[in-house]
Design brief:
single chain; two-stranded antiparallel ribbon; 2 helices
C-alpha cells in the first residue's frame, strides 16, 4: 500500500484562488478593442531597457484607485512587467502591495 499525503498537501483538495471571468471584471469586448489599440500604439514594452513586445494594456493609475480607461491612462507592457507592477503597486493576485514571492515561497522585495 502506498503512503498517502495529508489532505492539505493533496493538490486535488487544496483551495485555490479563483478569479472571476474577465468580462465580469469589466473587461469585455470593448476592453479588448481598447487593449488592441494600446498595443498597436505601444508595440514594445514601455518599461525602460525592456525590448519585449507589449502583450498587456496597463492602467497607469489602477481603476480601483480612480484610474480611467482613457488612452492617457493606459500603456503597453510585456506580461512580466505588467504582472510585477500589478503585485508591487496595486496589490493584485491576492497579495499585499509591495510583496513578491520567490519560487520557493520566500518573500522578496
Amino acid at each position: 500500500m502506498s503512503p498517502t499525503r495529508p489532505p492539505s498537501a493533496n493538490p486535488r483538495t487544496q483551495r485555490r484562488y479563483v478569479r472571476s471571468y474577465s468580462s465580469a471584471q469589466g473587461y469585455g469586448s470593448a476592453w479588448r478593442r481598447i487593449r488592441a489599440r494600446i498595443i498597436l500604439r505601444d508595440p514594445i514594452c514601455t518599461v525602460p531597457t525592456c525590448f519585449k513586445p507589449s502583450t498587456d494594456a496597463d492602467h497607469i493609475l489602477a481603476r480601483a484607485k480612480g484610474g480611467t480607461g482613457d488612452d492617457e491612462n493606459l500603456r503597453g507592457m510585456c506580461h512580466g512587467h505588467h504582472s510585477r507592477k500589478t503585485i508591487l503597486e496595486d496589490g493584485g493576485f491576492g497579495r499585499e502591495p509591495g510583496r513578491l514571492m520567490g519560487s520557493r515561497g520566500r518573500r522578496r522585495g
